[in-house]
Design brief:
- The chain is 47% helix and 17% strand.
- With 211 residues, it is α/β, with parallel strands linked by helices.
- Strand 5 (123-126) and strand 6 (132-134) form a beta hairpin.
- The protein binds BIS(adenosine)-5'-pentaphosphate and magnesium ion.
- BIS(adenosine)-5'-pentaphosphate binds at residues 8, 10-16, 31-33, 36, 53-54, 57-60, 65, 86-89, 93, 119, 123, 132-134, 137-138, 158, 167, 195-196, 198, 201.
């Protein structure tokens, strides 16, 4: 079973590497951030509830997030494994996940603060298919247009400086106990995510998963 969690600061590249690895490993990429953004776009009850937290750079309450993931993991495509990106992010979320499923690998992405600030400062994302680009690191072929589906590229509301600061502070507060929880289970691997070439980081993660 390939039940994998990616843990990393905002801008570490979780979404970028997961979109490469889901093809290599043939498992779904489950990003709670993308699921919330889709719910906000469709103005569902979960989206309306989550929007005020996300735009301000705060975490969505655990009970809302846990329910969303629980429902997603019941879908048939998760039977062959899955890659979780952005969940769990708190100890109660990890404990709830532990009651739902067994995790085989936790990849912790180690990345410097100056690197994440540069990445978040230039990130652009597709409104339609959620593909991730960067103004200078990974520019799209045509300005403002997604290479994959032709959708419009936009800057996320939570990539404004004030929300970035809040999100990074929350990550540093929550990640210690979260990683310790999985270290106790002996499933943690650390990957160096500072390389400016996403494929290199994805290959290092693949190596760790196979070791
Ligand atoms: P979410 O969408 O998960 O945001 P995040 O955790 O803040 O992480 P990011 O998406 O910002 O970073 P990333 O690591 O995916 O980086 P990316 O690949 O885009 O969550 C958003 C919000 O939803 C949260 O703040 C919260 O409110 C809510 N939420 C979600 N999950 C929740 C939960 N479990 N509990 C409660 N609330 C929750 O890369 C960044 C940029 O860098 C891109 O432009 C990319 O092109 C570039 N880049 C990436 N890697 C490289 C590289 N190696 N070299 C050069 N450029 C690179
Ligand atoms: Mg992401």
């Amino acid at each position: 079973m390939k039940n994998i969690i990616l843990i990393g600061a905002q801008g570490a590249g979780k979404g970028t590497y997961a979109s490469l690895l889901k093809v290599d490993l043939d498992i779904p990429h489950i990003s709670t951030g993308d699921m919330f953004r889709e719910a906000i776009k469709n103005q569902t009850p979960v989206g309306l509830e989550a929007k005020k937290f996300i735009d301000a750079g705060n975490l969505v309450p655990d009970e809302v997030t846990i329910k969303l993931v629980d429902e997603r993991l019941k879908k048939p495509d998760c039977k062959k494994g899955y890659m979780l990106d952005g969940f769990p992010r708190t100890l109660p979320q990890a404990q709830a996940l532990d009651r739902i499923t067994k995790i085989n690998h936790v990849i912790v992405l180690d990345v410097r603060e100056d690197v994440v600030l540069q990445r978040l400062g230039g990130r652009i994302q597709c409104r339609k298919c959620a593909a991730i680009f960067h103004l200078t690191n990974l520019p799209p072929k045509k300005k403002g247009i997604c290479d994959k589906c032709g959708g419009e590229l936009y800057t996320r509301e939570d990539d404004k400086p004030e929300a970035i600061r809040k999100r990074l502070a929350t990550f540093h507060e929550q990640s210690g106990p979260l990683i310790a929880f999985y270290e106790n289970k002996g499933v943690v691997h650390h990957a160096d995510a500072n390389s400016p070439v996403p494929r290199e980081v994805a290959d290092e993660i693949l190596k760790l998963l196979k070791a």
